[in-house]
Specification:
It is a single chain. By secondary structure, the protein is of the alpha/beta class. It has a single domain, classed as TIM Barrel (Alpha-Beta Barrel), CATH 3.20.20.80. Helices cover 31% and strands 11% of the residues. The chain contains 12 helices and 10 strands. An 8-stranded parallel β-barrel has the order 3-4-5-6-7-8-9-10, surrounded by 4 helices. Strands 1-2 form a two-stranded antiparallel sheet. Strand 9, helix 9 and strand 10 form a beta-alpha-beta unit.
């Protein structure tokens, strides 16, 4: 039988008719195939080799060489793109780390799973008093059901709960415009006693009011630190009547750079007024909101990052300056045994959102998702070295999936509007904690 005839029969019975032709070429190596996996959170596609199986090919005896050709067996080197910045700071105390969550009508078990994945020791929720008690003799069953579920899930996971209670109902205020305190402070006391009794032994801390140095949060009466302290006095009495073990944190002023006395009072001026009015005698810790706008956490007013184009003209725009100035005020008033509680902080970014930040939040264009993650890590490491700073509650976990990309709150979210994790989510989960 001739060689050509043997080749033809080999093609028909071994390789199949579709492979037969005038010539047969035997490869000496089989190339490795690739397939693309889904994109990583930062948009990079990773290519992984497929298993090539048996690389040998059957050939007719007359075509087998005396020495077998080598077969490629080494897979190509794969470089994986990091999903979050590396952290080289100290190991952190889990009980000093928290995050604020959006709660209304969310899947609470799924939310609890995210909190566990992040490894936080605290979860904060805002109790908008006007929504929980829309009428004097009526409580919102739906709102309380949401809160009941969160408190229960957090306690099962060993996560402490903080409730921030603000925004008086319209029926209790002198005006219905914006938000503000009640006319009668006894109403605040009664509502906090109701909360503390309902969640006795389950809610670890109550923050009494929110950013009271802003007109939008204290409308209807003049901005006044002493008036806030009086409201805290009534609120603290309500908490202690309902749960004597719960911690009481004073409402944090907002950092604004404005001190016109109408739109806002400078937060340092306001906090000094709170201390002068005796707030330290009423609370277990002091709320503070050291936002950094687009400034890195290690930048200061005296030594700013010159690449940041806005919000460099006032100390209140710098994370580190705000903490240092509040510590100095505590020292000035001889307060040594109580800490600053960072009940909100964070860096907003609109990267990968469908639209630009809303009016007033344009600075978020100067923060990438990667920087958001890096700054969060740095802030926790910086505060870890400050004994006067207690728990730090990051703002926020999940506002973007519920509010969408039209709100500034969403820029701070650890999740994107589609629910996928941002690098900051992964960075927080990866922080070393004990």
């Amino acid at each position: 039988m001739t060689l050509k005839l043997r080749l033809f029969l080999f093609c028909v019975f071994v390789l199949g008719l579709g492979a037969c032709g005038e010539e047969v070429v035997v490869p000496t190596a089989v190339p490795t195939s690739t397939v693309s996996t889904p994109e990583t959170p930062n948009g990079n596609t990773i290519f992984l080799p497929l298993a090539s199986g048996d690389a040998s090919t059957a050939v007719a005896p007359d075509l087998v060489p005396t020495e077998a050709a080598p077969v490629a067996t080494t897979a190509p080197t794969i470089t994986l793109t990091p999903t979050h910045p590396q952290y080289d700071g100290p190991t952190l105390n889990r009980n000093q780390i928290g995050v604020q969550a959006y709660l209304h009508r969310v899947d609470v078990p799924a939310l609890a799973a995210q909190l566990n994945e992040l490894g936080v020791g605290w979860v904060k929720a805002q109790v908008s008093w006007k929504l929980f008690q829309p009428f004097p003799d009526q409580l919102s069953e739906e709102r309380f059901a949401d809160l009941d579920a969160l408190v229960a899930q957090a306690n099962v996971s060993g996560i402490r709960v903080m409730l921030s209670v603000a925004k008086a109902p319209e029926w209790s205020r002198p005006t219905t415009e914006l938000d503000g305190p009640p006319t009668e402070y006894t109403l605040y006391r009664d509502f906090l006693q109701l909360l503390a009794s309902r969640y006795a032994g389950q809610v670890a801390a109550y923050e009494l009011w929110n950013e009271p140095n802003l007109q939008r949060e204290w409308n209807g009466v003049p901005l006044d630190a002493a008036a806030l302290v009086e409201l805290i006095r009534f609120g603290a009495a309500g908490v202690r009547a309902g749960d004597a073990t719960a911690l009481i944190i004073s409402g944090a002023p907002a950092v604004t750079g404005i001190n016109d006395g109408v739109t806002a009072v400078d937060d340092r001026v306001y906090f000094r007024g709170m201390l002068a009015a005796g707030v330290a005698e009423l609370v277990d810790g002091f709320g503070v909101h050291p936002y950094g706008w687009a400034n890195p956490p290690d930048a200061t007013f005296a030594n700013p990052d010159l690449a940041i184009p806005t919000h460099n003209d006032h100390p209140s725009f710098f994370f580190q300056d705000t903490l240092a100035d509040y510590v100095a005020l505590l020292d000035e008033f001889g307060v040594t045994e109580k800490q600053l509680w960072v009940t909100e902080f964070g860096w907003g970014s609109f990267e990968q959102f469908a639209q630009d930040p809303p009016l007033g939040a344009e600075f978020m264009n100067n923060v990438s998702e990667w920087q958001q993650a890096t700054y969060t890590q740095q802030a926790y490491a910086l505060a870890h070295e400050m004994p006067q700073v207690g728990p730090m509650i990051l703002w926020n976990l999940n506002f973007a999936p519920w509010l969408g990309d039209a709100f500034s709150e969403s820029g701070y979210s650890l999740l994107r509007p589609d629910g996928s994790p941002r690098p900051a989510y992964l960075a927080l989960a990866a922080l070393p904690k004990q």
